[in-house]
Amino acid sequence: MGRGKVELRRTENKTNRQVTFSKRRGGLVKKAQEISVLCDAEVALIIFSHNAKLFEFSSDSCEGRDCSLKV
């Protein structure tokens, strides 16, 4: 039996929104790190918060040299 469709809506409470953002950011960084280790891939992650604060992650192979963006 499948799950029902989840309605997406903005979280109005600023505190809850910030907590959710922090948890999701941590999850994304963890996944990026796992991909870089397990697949021996160059990974770079750039995240901007709602107030334009920058968060970044790059795998060890990207540090100290230019990791160009490949789409």
Poorly predicted runs of 5 or more residues: none
Q: Could you state the oligomeric state of the chains shown?
A: single chain
> CATH homologous superfamily of the domain at 14-58?
Transcription factor, MADS-box
CATH topological fold name of the domain at 14-58: SRF-like
Helix and strand pattern: HEE
User: Tell me, what's the shape?
Assistant: flat
Gap between N and C termini: 36 Å
Helical segment tally? Answer: 1
Give a written overview of the molecule.
The chain is an alpha+beta fold. It has a domain of 45 residues: Transcription factor, MADS-box (SRF-like), CATH 3.40.1810. The protein has one helix and two strands. The chain has a two-stranded antiparallel ribbon. It is flat. The mean pLDDT is 87.
In short, what is this structure?
It is found in: Nucleus. This protein has one helix at 14-38; strands at residues 44-48, 54-58. With 71 residues, it is of the alpha+beta class.
Topology:
Blueprint: H1 14-38, E1 44-48, E2 54-58
Antiparallel strand pairs: 1-2
